[in-house]
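Good morning,

Attaching, inline, the C-alpha coordinates for the sequence recovery test we're adding to the shared suite. The designed sequence is right after.
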Protein backbone atom coordinates (compact mmCIF):
# COMPACT_ATOMS: atom_id res chain seq x y z
CA UNK A 1 0.00 0.00 0.00
CA UNK A 2 0.86 3.62 -0.19
CA UNK A 3 2.72 5.09 2.76
CA UNK A 4 1.64 8.32 4.35
CA UNK A 5 4.01 11.19 4.58
CA UNK A 6 4.85 11.78 8.23
CA UNK A 7 6.08 14.97 9.74
CA UNK A 8 9.57 14.96 11.22
CA UNK A 9 8.14 14.81 14.76
CA UNK A 10 5.84 11.91 13.86
CA UNK A 11 8.70 10.07 12.15
CA UNK A 12 10.93 10.63 15.18
CA UNK A 13 8.21 9.44 17.56
CA UNK A 14 7.54 6.39 15.36
CA UNK A 15 11.25 5.53 15.23
CA UNK A 16 11.54 5.98 18.99
CA UNK A 17 8.59 3.60 19.63
CA UNK A 18 10.04 1.10 17.16
CA UNK A 19 13.47 1.30 18.84
CA UNK A 20 11.88 0.90 22.27
CA UNK A 21 9.95 -2.15 21.02
CA UNK A 22 13.17 -3.66 19.63
CA UNK A 23 15.00 -3.04 22.90
CA UNK A 24 12.22 -4.73 24.91
CA UNK A 25 12.24 -7.74 22.58
CA UNK A 26 16.02 -7.91 22.78
CA UNK A 27 15.91 -7.72 26.60
CA UNK A 28 13.34 -10.56 26.65
CA UNK A 29 15.58 -12.67 24.41
CA UNK A 30 18.56 -11.96 26.67
CA UNK A 31 16.51 -13.10 29.71
CA UNK A 32 15.46 -16.26 27.84
CA UNK A 33 19.07 -16.96 26.87
CA UNK A 34 20.24 -16.43 30.47
CA UNK A 35 17.57 -18.86 31.72
CA UNK A 36 18.47 -21.40 29.04
CA UNK A 37 22.18 -20.98 29.77
CA UNK A 38 21.59 -21.47 33.51
CA UNK A 39 19.61 -24.67 32.78
CA UNK A 40 22.36 -25.92 30.44
CA UNK A 41 24.96 -25.30 33.14
CA UNK A 42 22.83 -27.24 35.65
CA UNK A 43 22.46 -30.12 33.17
CA UNK A 44 26.18 -30.07 32.45
CA UNK A 45 26.89 -30.27 36.18
CA UNK A 46 24.44 -33.18 36.54
CA UNK A 47 26.08 -34.92 33.59
CA UNK A 48 29.51 -34.49 35.15
CA UNK A 49 28.28 -35.81 38.51
CA UNK A 50 26.63 -38.73 36.72
CA UNK A 51 29.84 -39.60 34.84
CA UNK A 52 31.85 -39.52 38.09
CA UNK A 53 29.27 -41.76 39.80
CA UNK A 54 29.19 -44.24 36.89
CA UNK A 55 32.98 -44.32 36.72
CA UNK A 56 33.16 -45.07 40.43
CA UNK A 57 30.41 -47.71 40.25
CA UNK A 58 32.03 -49.50 37.30
CA UNK A 59 35.58 -49.33 38.66
CA UNK A 60 34.91 -51.79 41.50
CA UNK A 61 33.50 -54.65 39.38
CA UNK A 62 36.10 -54.00 36.67
CA UNK A 63 38.84 -54.34 39.28
CA UNK A 64 37.22 -57.59 40.41
CA UNK A 65 37.06 -58.97 36.85
CA UNK A 66 40.62 -57.84 36.17
CA UNK A 67 41.94 -59.47 39.34
CA UNK A 68 40.22 -62.78 38.68
CA UNK A 69 41.31 -62.83 35.03
CA UNK A 70 44.94 -62.29 36.14
CA UNK A 71 44.54 -65.08 38.67
CA UNK A 72 43.19 -67.35 35.95
CA UNK A 73 46.09 -66.44 33.66
CA UNK A 74 48.54 -67.27 36.46
CA UNK A 75 46.86 -70.63 36.98
CA UNK A 76 47.09 -71.41 33.25
CA UNK A 77 50.73 -70.26 33.04
CA UNK A 78 51.71 -72.48 35.98
CA UNK A 79 53.70 -75.39 34.70
CA UNK A 80 51.31 -77.80 36.37
CA UNK A 81 49.13 -79.45 33.78
CA UNK A 82 46.19 -79.79 36.13
CA UNK A 83 44.41 -76.80 37.55
CA UNK A 84 42.26 -77.74 40.55
CA UNK A 85 38.56 -77.57 39.72
CA UNK A 86 37.90 -75.76 42.99
CA UNK A 87 40.35 -73.03 41.98
CA UNK A 88 38.71 -72.60 38.59
CA UNK A 89 35.25 -72.58 40.15
CA UNK A 90 36.26 -69.80 42.57
CA UNK A 91 37.75 -67.73 39.76
CA UNK A 92 34.66 -68.26 37.57
CA UNK A 93 32.39 -67.24 40.45
CA UNK A 94 34.40 -64.05 40.98
CA UNK A 95 34.28 -63.21 37.28
CA UNK A 96 30.53 -63.84 37.13
CA UNK A 97 29.98 -61.65 40.17
CA UNK A 98 31.94 -58.77 38.64
CA UNK A 99 30.16 -59.07 35.31
CA UNK A 100 26.74 -59.24 37.02
CA UNK A 101 27.51 -56.05 38.96
CA UNK A 102 28.59 -54.27 35.76
CA UNK A 103 25.34 -55.36 34.09
CA UNK A 104 23.38 -53.94 37.04
CA UNK A 105 25.21 -50.61 36.77
CA UNK A 106 24.64 -50.46 33.02
CA UNK A 107 20.92 -51.24 33.48
CA UNK A 108 20.72 -48.47 36.09
CA UNK A 109 22.37 -46.06 33.64
CA UNK A 110 19.85 -47.01 30.95
CA UNK A 111 16.99 -46.46 33.41
CA UNK A 112 18.31 -43.02 34.39
CA UNK A 113 18.62 -42.04 30.73
CA UNK A 114 15.08 -43.27 30.04
CA UNK A 115 13.72 -41.41 33.06
CA UNK A 116 15.41 -38.16 32.02
CA UNK A 117 14.21 -38.49 28.42
CA UNK A 118 10.67 -39.45 29.47
CA UNK A 119 10.78 -42.82 27.69
CA UNK A 120 10.78 -45.15 30.70
CA UNK A 121 8.06 -47.76 30.24
CA UNK A 122 6.18 -48.57 33.41
CA UNK A 123 3.88 -51.55 33.90
CA UNK A 124 1.45 -50.00 36.33
CA UNK A 125 -0.81 -52.19 38.39
CA UNK A 126 -1.74 -53.03 41.96
CA UNK A 127 1.30 -53.79 44.11
CA UNK A 128 1.26 -55.36 47.56
CA UNK A 129 4.17 -53.88 49.56
CA UNK A 130 4.26 -56.93 51.85
CA UNK A 131 5.34 -59.10 48.92
CA UNK A 132 7.91 -56.58 47.70
CA UNK A 133 9.46 -56.18 51.16
CA UNK A 134 9.44 -59.94 51.88
CA UNK A 135 11.10 -60.70 48.52
CA UNK A 136 13.76 -58.05 49.14
CA UNK A 137 14.35 -59.35 52.68
CA UNK A 138 14.81 -62.87 51.33
CA UNK A 139 17.35 -61.58 48.78
CA UNK A 140 19.57 -60.16 51.53
CA UNK A 141 19.03 -62.91 54.12
CA UNK A 142 22.28 -64.80 53.40
CA UNK A 143 24.58 -61.78 53.23
CA UNK A 144 23.05 -60.39 56.44
CA UNK A 145 23.66 -63.73 58.17
CA UNK A 146 27.28 -63.85 56.94
CA UNK A 147 27.94 -60.31 58.21
CA UNK A 148 25.94 -60.74 61.41
CA UNK A 149 23.56 -57.96 60.36
CA UNK A 150 20.10 -57.88 61.87
CA UNK A 151 17.44 -57.08 59.27
CA UNK A 152 14.26 -55.99 61.07
CA UNK A 153 11.14 -55.74 58.90
CA UNK A 154 8.01 -54.09 60.28
CA UNK A 155 4.61 -55.63 59.59
CA UNK A 156 3.44 -54.42 56.18
CA UNK A 157 0.28 -56.55 56.10
CA UNK A 158 -1.96 -53.57 56.92
CA UNK A 159 -0.48 -51.43 54.15
CA UNK A 160 -2.96 -50.81 51.32
CA UNK A 161 -2.40 -51.94 47.75
CA UNK A 162 -0.62 -49.24 45.79
CA UNK A 163 -0.54 -48.46 42.07
CA UNK A 164 2.93 -48.85 40.64
CA UNK A 165 5.36 -50.92 38.64
CA UNK A 166 6.05 -53.85 40.97
CA UNK A 167 9.31 -54.83 39.28
CA UNK A 168 10.72 -51.30 39.41
CA UNK A 169 9.51 -50.76 42.99
CA UNK A 170 11.24 -53.97 44.04
CA UNK A 171 14.43 -52.88 42.26
CA UNK A 172 14.30 -49.51 44.05
CA UNK A 173 13.79 -51.12 47.47
CA UNK A 174 16.58 -53.62 46.71
CA UNK A 175 18.86 -50.72 45.86
CA UNK A 176 18.09 -48.90 49.12
CA UNK A 177 18.44 -52.05 51.25
CA UNK A 178 21.59 -53.01 49.31
CA UNK A 179 23.13 -49.66 50.21
CA UNK A 180 22.10 -50.15 53.84
CA UNK A 181 23.79 -53.56 53.85
CA UNK A 182 26.85 -52.16 52.11
CA UNK A 183 27.35 -49.28 54.55
CA UNK A 184 26.21 -50.86 57.82
CA UNK A 185 29.13 -52.19 59.87
CA UNK A 186 29.19 -55.93 60.59
CA UNK A 187 27.00 -56.76 63.56
CA UNK A 188 24.79 -53.73 62.87
CA UNK A 189 21.04 -53.40 62.46
CA UNK A 190 18.91 -52.45 59.45
CA UNK A 191 15.21 -51.66 59.81
CA UNK A 192 12.58 -51.52 57.07
CA UNK A 193 9.50 -49.59 58.14
CA UNK A 194 6.35 -48.37 56.47
CA UNK A 195 3.60 -45.91 57.34
CA UNK A 196 0.05 -45.45 56.13
Amino acid sequence: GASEHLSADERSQHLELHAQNLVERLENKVRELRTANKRLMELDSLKSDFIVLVSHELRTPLTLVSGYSHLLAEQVNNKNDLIPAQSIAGIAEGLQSGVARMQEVINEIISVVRISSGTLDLSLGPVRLTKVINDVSATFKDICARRNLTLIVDDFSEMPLIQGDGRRLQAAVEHVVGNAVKYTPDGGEIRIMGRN
